[in-house]
Amino acid sequence: MAMYYPPMPENKTPIIIVLAVIGVGIWLYYRGKKEGKTDFPDVDYKTGTQEIPKSYNPNLLADELFDVLDRTFATPGEKEDAFQKMYYLPNDDLKVLVYNTFNKKYSKKAGMTLTKWIDSELVFNWGASVRKPLIAKLRSLNCK
User: Fold this and answer.
1) Biggest CA-to-CA distance, the chain
2) In sequence order, what E strands does the chain have?
3) What is the pTM of this model?
4) What is the pLDDT of residues 42-95, one digit of tens each?
5) b or e along 53-75 (b: 16 or more beta carbons within 10 Å of the residue's beta carbon)?
6) What is the Cα–Cα distance from 53 to 36, expressed in whole angstroms?
7) Are the C-beta atoms of residues 86 and 134 closer than 8 Å to each other?
8) Which helix (H) or strand (E) holds 32?
9) What span, in angstroms and rounded, lies between the C-alpha atoms of 108 and 131?
């Protein structure tokens, strides 16, 4: 039994146009994806890194902050606890380190920095919260 192959069209222009449109679509997709990336530069440390203990892991606090900021049903108490941990870090360089770590890991998801994300939060303790002082402190450290 002989195999049947459909005849090749004499005019290959429609095939070339379809392939060109697909190619342009793929190129636009990847170009748009590349343009959509937001890289926030690291903020310089106030006194260098000598005040940062070698054993300090900024990922733990950065992950906790992301968890409470990203979760839809995080309670105001959970957010306040995370904000207090950030606010009461022993020195400014640790705050900058956590800020830089958070931005490297999570800012692309939100399209904003940690400071802007905290500032845009609507659910938090409206009473005695460290949210506003934390935002002011981060901005004073050039963590915008």
Assistant:
1) 85
2) none
3) 0.70
4) 777 766 677 788 888 999 999 999 999 998 888 888 999 999 999 999 999 999
5) eeeeebeebbebbbebbeeeebe
6) 35
7) yes
8) helix 13-35
9) 22
Which is it for the CA torsion 94, 82, 69, 131, positive or negative? negative
Rounded distance between C-alpha atoms, residue 25 and residue 19, angstroms = 10
Alpha carbon distance, N-terminus to C-terminus of the chain: 74
The predicted-structure confidence for 98-143, as pLDDT tens digits, reads as follows 999 999 998 888 788 999 999 988 877 777 889 999 999 999 999 9
> ∠15-17-21 over CA atoms, to 5°?
120
